[in-house]
Specification:
The protein has 99 residues and is mainly alpha-helical. The protein contains 3 helices and no strands. The radius of gyration is 18 Å and the shape is elongated. The model is unreliable at 78-99 (pLDDT under 50).
Length: 99
């Protein structure tokens, strides 16, 4: 599986877990319409707590990525600046396609 190397493992894991949790909440809502509504509401409440925990971790994880990208660009010299600008363009494109 291809993964953008501009994001470290920890940040990637947090993002993936957050997205998966949000998707699970949608599924639980559908399940509750099929029956046993109380069960799925309870499961959703616990899942929402997990989503909030992950959401709280995102800003710090993303800040760490931005900090490490800046450090890499400054260590690479002028050639690294060119690479960084082209990667930033790619990152913007990948962000748009993932939404």
């Amino acid at each position: 599986m291809y993964r953008n190397q501009m994001v470290d493992n920890n940040t990637y894991n947090i993002l993936q877990a957050y997205v998966s949790t949000l998707e699970a909440l949608e599924v639980y809502q559908k399940y509750s319409q099929d029956g046993n509504e109380q069960l799925w509401k309870q499961v959703a409440q616990h899942t929402e707590q997990i989503a909030r925990i992950l959401q709280q971790q995102l800003p710090q994880a993303l800040q760490n990525v931005q900090g490490s990208m800046g450090a890499t660009a400054s260590q690479s010299g002028s050639m690294g600046s060119m690479d960084t600008s082209s990667q930033s363009g790619n990152m913007g494109t990948s962000s748009q396609s993932s939404h």
